[in-house]
Amino acid sequence: MQDKTSNPETQAETTTSRRKFLTNTAAGAAGTAAMAFPMISVAQSPITMRFQSTWPAKDIFHEYALDYAKLVNDMSGGRLKIDVLPAGSVVKAFDLLDAVSKGTLDGGHGVIAYWYGKNSALALWGSGPAFGMDPNMLLAWHEYGGGKALVQEIYQSLGMDVTSFMYGPMPTQPLGWFKKPVTKPEDMKGLKYRTVGLAVDVFTDMGVAVNALPGGEIVPAMDRGLLDAAEFNNASSDRLLGFPDVAKVCMLQSFHQCSEQFEILFNKKKFDALPADLKSIISNAASAASAEMSWKAIDRYSKDYFEMQEKQGVKFYKTPDPILRAQLESWDKVIAKKAGENPMFKKVLDSQRAFAARAARWQNDTSVSYRMAYDHFFAKKG
């Protein structure tokens, strides 16, 4: 019988087994030693981005900007921190786009109509009747009907190094604040009036003397008599900005900006440099903030609407239909002129028209009259 220890193959197997044993023993000892000491975590500093809004600190719009930043900060688990400053902290409101593009700011919060002077097509995301689309439908066009690619094309043509997110459908904006009610289109002629975007062209065609001012400058201008009338956006913003202190008449309903939304801007280089998961958080936070803003707006705007009537003596009137029809007629002239001058304007306009022809018809045919239901429950009987 052969001695196993004298067999070369058996000796090799024995040597290999010993080596495995020693290796495993050493690894186990190292693991035990590691468990005996606490793990040392190296904290990673958050990526901080400096934002500026185009709104005064007290305006609910600035609050919306803060809400978006909080969503991003919370969803990132502290890895990304957006600090939001109010309008004027770094640049003037109308200079925000350039500041973000150049990297002076990492990002910002505003409305795309403010960049109307760079390309009139940009105002089509906020000004005008949008072929009968409400603001949420306009966002649907932006996300699913080609708007997102079009706005990128415009920004690239302007050399703007930015990444844009549209969100936050705004309720129909009032015609504005006046010293006395306006009852017909002729009452608007010659008024010194504030608005922005393509609404400037609409009201100019209606004979109004328009002055495009940022939100924070409107009430002081009315107080000094530099404006006879003005619009901004909604009951909460108007109240906080002080409109009831300089005028007691507000005309509700208008086609000049009935389908507007907010824009969140990032410097493109800084956005592109972020990890993929943080980019996803930024995008998804815009969708989440869009819903949150809509719900908050319903609550806050309705409260301020009633309180201005009950506590500040404001009188609200529906804008008469002749003025609304005059707006539509002026809009026809404005878009025909702009489309002839600017091929990009026509491209955006045609895209919106095609989407609205289908989507707005569906909505009008499908939606029930909420006014009928409201009147049934709340209108005075008899």
Task: List the topology elements.
Elements: H1 8-36, E1 47-53, H2 60-75, E2 80-85, H3 96-102, E3 107-110, H4 135-144, H5 147-157, E4 162-169, E5 176-178, E6 192-194, H6 199-205, E7 209-211, H7 215-223, E8 229-230, H8 235-241, H9 243-246, E9 249-252, E10 261-267, H10 268-272, H11 276-311, E11 315-318, H12 321-341, H13 343-366, H14 370-378
Parallel strand pairs: 1-2, 1-3, 6-7, 6-8, 9-11
Antiparallel strand pairs: 3-10, 4-10, 5-9
Helix pairs in contact: 2-11, 6-12, 8-11, 12-13
General description of the model:
- The protein is of the alpha/beta class and 382 residues long.
- It has 2 domains: 47-170 and 259-299, Bacterial extracellular solute-binding protein, family 7 (D-Maltodextrin-Binding Protein, domain 2); 176-256 and 315-366, Periplasmic binding protein-like II (D-Maltodextrin-Binding Protein, domain 2, 3-Layer(aba) Sandwich).
- It has 14 helices and 11 strands.
- It has helices spanning 8-36, 60-75, 96-102, 135-144, 147-157, 199-205, 215-223, 235-241, 243-246, 268-272, 276-311, 321-341, 343-366, 370-378; strands at residues 47-53, 80-85, 107-110, 162-169, 176-178, 192-194, 209-211, 229-230, 249-252, 261-267, 315-318.
- The strands form 3 sheets. It has a 5-stranded mixed sheet, sandwiched between helices.
- Helix 2 runs antiparallel to helix 11 (276-311).
